[in-house]
Specification:
- The protein is of the alpha+beta class and 376 residues long.
- It has 2 domains: 222 residues, Endonuclease III, domain 1 (Orthogonal Bundle), CATH 1.10.340; 134 residues, Alpha-Beta Complex (Nucleoside Triphosphate Pyrophosphohydrolase).
- It has 15 helices and 7 strands.
- Strands 1, 2, 3, 4, 5, 6 and 7 form a 7-stranded mixed beta sheet that branches.
- A hairpin with a 5-residue loop joins strand 1 and strand 2.
- The longest helix is centred in the last third of the chain and has 20 residues.
- The radius of gyration is 25 Å and the shape is elongated.
Length: 376
Amino acid sequence: MTAKDHMARAEHLPNAERFARALLEWYDTHRRDLPWRGTRDPYAIWVSEIMLQQTQVARVAEYFARWMARFPTVQALAEASLDDVLKLWEGLGYYSRARNLHKAAKVIVEERQGRFPRTAAEWQKLPGVGPYTAAAIASIAFGEPVAALDGNLKRVLARVCLVETPINTPEGTRLLHDIAQALVPSQRAGDWNQALMDVGAEICTPRSPRCLLCPVQTHCAAAAHQRQHDLPRRRARGKRPHYLVTAALIWNEAGQLLIAQRPHDKMLGGLWEFPGGKCEAGETLDACLRREIREELGIEIEVGEHLTTVEHAYTHFSITLHAFHCRYVGGEPQALGVADWRWVFPDELDAFAWPSTDAKIIATLRAAQLTAESED
């Protein structure tokens, strides 16, 4: 069924004006008190929307306050170094978001003379800004009547309109986008988007929706047909692959560690790490580590004591990371498969931005050093 066909079924599409009125009246009284609301500053709204991608609101609130204190304007962000940006983002994950914020800030300042885009179409021309983020910024900051279709809106509208198409498919996304765009009001579009986000986050939740508290229950076809618990539908995903990975804490005679910066165009680009990599089929951990260090840095190492094992799940795969103490044997380090490298003392590690896996290795290293010092 096409979006046009679906919307032609009037019993499953609420009256747009009455739906918006009920939603906005509820929002005026029950909206969440979030630090980026109550402003029309496109910079603050843009930063908040980027941070909110794949991240819980409570966690974003903490980072947002620090970010705005350190980079209060787009000019301040554009003038900052990427290392400073990544360090401030450290722990928030999905680091391409920070890199793209930095790139886009430079575009706005250097190519647009500090002028922000005003429409969703213009926002999408900037690095890291997709359809949802562009619509959210344009509607909230500039009042453009565009629907910002995030996970919450998808779930709410799939229930309201009794959408049977799996929402995690291209067909489902197109259908729900057309439905949302048919319902978004010409006035207060930003509030309408945020109201639906709040309903999805606090009332129309994935499990055990609180229908009796919902401001649009009387407009909801799923509630009327007692279908709210089995909608929305999702297409089952394939099994997430798992990889065995190694990392080397390479020590020289001066007591320094060799750290490497990940290539800027790769996953976690620009972050620093203990060098290593993925094991090949049938390869031992020791052999993997020696090969990876040779390929990435052009040096020879001796693999020593195992320090720790870290389990970590990313969006599309998971890893088991084994970290080893290693001794630097020879060769001049080169940036062969890394963006940069440095010898640093352990007490200098906090000056760099690390992926969460390597941050756990550092924590284990320091705990082991404290234990050793207490025993001496």
